[in-house]
Amino acid sequence: MGAERKDIDDLPRNPANYTALSPLGFLDRAALVHPTRKSLIHGSVSYTWRQTYRRCRQLASALTKRSVTFGSTVAVISPNIPALFEAHFGIPMSGAVLNTVNIRLNAETIAFLLGHSQSDVIMVDQESYSLAENALKIMADKSKGKFKPPTLIVIGDQNCDPKLLQYALEKGAIEYEKFLESGDPDFEWKPPEDEWHSIALGYTSGTTASPKGVVLHHRGAYLMALSNAIVWGMTEGAVYLWTLPMFHCNGGCFPWTLAERGVTAKGVYTAIANLGVTHFCAAPVVLNSIVNTPQDETTLPLPRLVHVMTAGAAPPPSVLLRNVTRGFK
């Protein structure tokens, strides 16, 4: 075997010449450079980058106080709501790994992936609480008396039936905002020592067998987040509409790129008109609904050029053409 090859100067790594790549630093910078700019809008709720950064640090602090840190996994069962966006920063800031769970899966499948991921904490929105409850019951029944229930945090939403939240609290779940209050908004989180450390864990839907897990490291999330902005030409001031679920491959890493949110085709047009949306992702079925929206629910002609990224099954050429003629690129 030949001699070990060394760099010409063989300098060791140190803080002056090396830092592990991680998308967590993007939030730190956003709060520093654009503290009062809107970071997220969800119905009547909105936050600035400074507020989002403080809330994420509170989440990280609250988790570490419960010994949830490096080596731990936190599952989130939720649609696109502010808490899920905050989880993409707050959970890895604690050192733990984020596991976003598809809310369209059945309880049996979710029970499998919660057990496989060994999630220590489960964050669940109030409308998905019964799904999480059924999954945990399945896990308990299969454990033969050895089941250790994870910490359960329920995320309230003022747009939903308050009875669902009350039911979860009566069952012993911790309300998300109360959980945040136990954390320090000035928590001094530490970036990963190694960019190879895991930041997120995702699973397939398990249509052919048990779900398969896929691990994303900090370096991969950092590069993907930057690529999103560069490849799509997302310049400063871009406004992103959350049509892509964050439980699908962490929303294509867009939580670490920037944030806004919307749902129905009518909601997409309304957000374009009222919130200055410039970019959004859409599956072919969403593109189809956009071009088939009744005229009185649209905002046409569009007030600006709106960029659309689609993935999954290939959209029919006719759907693409009709979107282009409406002003989408």
TrEMBL record:
SUPFAM superfamilies: Acetyl-CoA synthetase-like (SSF56801)
Coiled coil spans: none
Keyword Transport carried by entry: no
Name recorded for this polypeptide: AMP-dependent synthetase/ligase domain-containing protein
InterPro entries per the UniProt record, alphabetical: AMP-dep_synth/lig_dom (IPR000873), ANL_N_sf (IPR042099)
Top-rank taxon, per record: Eukaryota
Occurrences of domain AMP-dependent synthetase/ligase (ranges): 28-321
Keywords: Ligase
